[in-house]
Amino acid sequence: MIAHLRRHYAPFLPLLLVPVVAFVGAFLNSVDARGRVIDDTDETPIAGIAVQYGSRSVITAPDGSYEMRALPRGVRVVAQKAGYGRSFAAAESNVLRLVPLTITFEVKDDTTGKGIDTPEARQPATVRIGTGSASGEMVVGPYPARDRPVLICAKDYESKEVTAKGVLMDVLLKPGGGGCPPLPTPVAPAQTASPSPRPSPAPPSPTGP
Q: Which residues of the chain have pLDDT under 70?
């Protein structure tokens, strides 16, 4: 009986194995993408943005986490948010870092909490990289160098050095300071004397007959 069944179903075995092999292959060559989207400057989670692979998309949770099941191994997912560059991460990675392109400083009076008129950002203190509005809002781009502080200053306030982090920072300045340090005076280019025009050659002397 068993031999009879084997002979009867033997021609169909390859057809039955095809979906099984395909399923096992897909299982072995897929991965569940699980990770967190964070700000590259301060490690804070970024919530409520889309993480995508092709036409598939998921939204990050309040802690920046995301999950996308059954992706092909070796592919990359991508995320982007206003103020940040477009960033990629391998499906197997557990972190996707977004790098800020600009930073907005909200410069306020330490006593009243009101915005300070036309603050400045310097990096270093002798190079202005941003000037704020009358309300104290100041957008600096490209992003300041992250290996040294940014000097925030304003007229009649004490200056403060801060480390740029994230895309939005509140900066409180104390009134009564000396304001922004003076910027170096531009050096006028040296003027070179114009060469004196060469005298025209004298006409040839007339010759006798």
A: 1-28, 188, 190-209
Nearest by Cα to 108 from 36, 173, 181: 173
Residue 45, domain member (yes or no): yes
For residues 102 and 167, the answer to whether their CB atoms sit within 8 Å is: yes
In angstroms, the CA 167 to CA 115 distance is 18
Q: Is 197 a domain residue?
A: no
pLDDT in tens, 190-202: 666 566 666 666 6
The CATH number of residue 151's host domain is 2.60.40.1120
pLDDT for the residue 19: 45
Residue 179 lies in a domain: no
How many structural domains is the chain composed of? 2
Range of the domain at 16: 2-98
Q: Identify the CA nearest to 103 among candidates 128, 149, 154, 137.
A: 137
Global pTM reads 0.73
* Whole-number CA gyration radius for the chain: 34
Spatial contact of 140 and 198, defined as CB atoms under 8 Å apart: no
Distances (CA, A) of 52 to 6, 7, 28, 36, 155: 48, 50, 22, 13, 46
Note whether 57 and 113 are same-domain residues: no
Q: Whose CA is closest to 98, among 161, 191, 167, 159?
A: 167
Please list the residues that pair with 151 across neighbouring strands: 122, 161
DSSP 74: T
